[in-house]
Specification:
The protein has 13 helices and three strands, in the order ααααααααβββααααα. The chain is mainly α. It folds into two domains: 114 residues; 157 residues, Orthogonal Bundle (hpI Integrase, Chain A), CATH 1.10.443. The radius of gyration is 21 Å and the shape is globular.
Length: 314
């Protein structure tokens, strides 16, 4: 059965069990997290045929747990990524450690994954790998649009949050795991440039791209005792909460901390930053994850490529 066939099963799907889906709320998840994941969860379930409320409830619960885990991992809430066989297996084995319902979660996700994805390689199922896909990077024009939209937010708090998310994401590669935890004391200006000290889960010091230095210095100088994004919240889902509150005109890209990090990674790959230093600055244990971005790196002229491969000096 090919992808086209499996998608045909969803065609004409009705809202599963009507309005009861909209009223679902996963217990044990805080309000900020639920607001961030609810649109993704409901969108997925509404594409599935209704086979009874008990089954639908189970699907809602499983998708909610998956989405909440993905937020904590800094992943974009995209069905093609979250319902990829590799991601599903990593969620079950790492995100549900000690949970006696792991087998049920795996079974539900393997059932709905082929129905909600077009590109995920469910048939045949590949061997699990440790590779984590990255969110698609923004284009230069999309970044320019996001910068313009940041200044058009309806409140000063949203303007500040948008500016800080942009500068720390595109300028230092910080996604939802770190971007909302940067305070003024974590920003240093030295002869080496502007440096941002990053905490757990991968403590390090990241040099800011020159283009974003002035913005980050200005944000730090006006942050007071708050975080650069504003406020004092320590919620691990703070980035998702902030981005979901930002306003974007129709047709404009939505701001995503994960996509900004990918944009930063792509900039360095395009500029020729050495992989060991890039991995260290990004908080990566290896460089496998960068393979998802290689196709987006502009090629160099054949002569230049050969010169580089020969190790020739200009």
């Amino acid at each position: 059965m090919n992808n086209g066939t499996r998608r045909a099963r969803v065609t004409g799907a009705i809202p599963a069990c009507g309005d009861r889906v909209a009223g679902f709320r996963l217990r044990g998840v805080n309000e900020e997290t639920w607001r961030a994941i609810q649109p993704f969860v409901l969108s997925c379930v509404r594409q599935l045929p209704c086979v009874g409320w008990p089954s639908t409830t189970r699907t809602l619960r499983v998708l909610s747990r998956l989405a909440a885990w993905a937020l904590g991992e800094g992943m974009a809430l995209d069905a093609e990524l979250l319902l990829d066989p590799d991601t599903v297996e990593r969620f079950v084995t790492q995100g549900l450690t000690g949970d006696p319902s792991r087998a049920t979660y795996r079974s539900v996700l393997r059932r709905i994954g082929p129905l909600l994805t077009k590109r995920a390689p469910w048939e045949p199922r590949p061997l699990p790998t440790a590779r984590r896909q990255v969110a698609p990077p923004y284009t230069t024009s999309e970044i320019e649009t996001l910068i313009a939209d940041a200044g058009r937010q309806s409140t000063n708090l949203r303007i500040r949050a948008c500016r800080a998310l942009l500068a720390l994401g595109a300028g230092a590669g910080l996604d939802g795991r770190w971007v909302t935890r940067v305070k003024v004391e974590h920003v240093a200006v030295s002869k080496a440039g502007v440096l941002v000290q990053v905490g757990e889960p991968a403590p390090r010091v990241v040099p800011v791209l020159v283009h974003w230095e002035a913005e980050i210095v200005e944000l730090a100088s006006s942050a007071g005792d708050q975080f650069l994004v504003g406020g004092y919240s320590l919620s691990r889902n703070r980035a998702s909460t902030l981005t979901s509150s930002l306003e974007a005109p129709p047709g404009h890209p939505r701001l995503s901390a994960a996509r900004l990090r990918s944009t930063w990674l792509l900039w360095h790959l395009t500029s020729g930053t050495r992989l060991p230093e890039l991995a260290a600055a990004a908080g990566l244990q290896g460089v496998t994850v960068l393979s998802d971005l290689l196709s987006a790196v502009p090629p160099v002229a054949e002569g230049e490529a050969r010169r580089m491969l020969r190790g020739a000096v200009r």
